[in-house]
Design a protein that fits this description.
With 158 residues, the chain is mainly β. It contains 3 helices and 12 strands; from the N terminus they run ββαβββαβββββββα. The protein has 2 domains: 2-99, no CATH class; 111-150, no CATH class. It is elongated, with a radius of gyration of 23 Å. The structure holds zinc ion (ZN).
Amino acid sequence: MIKIEYGKGYSDQTFEYKITIQKPMTVGEFIKEWMAERPDEWGYFGIYDYGRTIFGNPQCKYSDGKIITDPIPDKYLNAEIDSVNGSGGWTRSDFLFKLMKDEPESNETFGEWIDHDGVYRCSECGYQIYTSKALLPNECPMCGHTMSNCDEEKTNEV
Ligand SMILES: [Zn+2]
């Protein structure tokens, strides 16, 4: 299910779309459903590449219910959509898919166990734990942050 509401309008009479999809939905499912629903439209489908290109990368062009350029590779078509942005007007609609797996891992916030003479303190929330270095948990029990200096230490000791 793809639901589109019109958002902000531009001077060329195109609009930003507010798109709601029934999750989970893959890029391929969205494309198939959209082309079946709007067989008279044309435009671009693209994979969000952090704003480096307007239509995304990879991307493809569609018209009259068919992909008319090289299609987007299967590994993207089979990927689950996290969010989709779109815009259009008249008979044109462009879509940019942000993928689930595309969440940058670096966005995760890491904490660190700081050694204070045998007491370890969470760098994020200050939680203190009295234990040996080998038994430090991977996650702070108080704030839930993943501790960046924990896994490594344990691996080194093996
Ligand atoms: Zn903490």
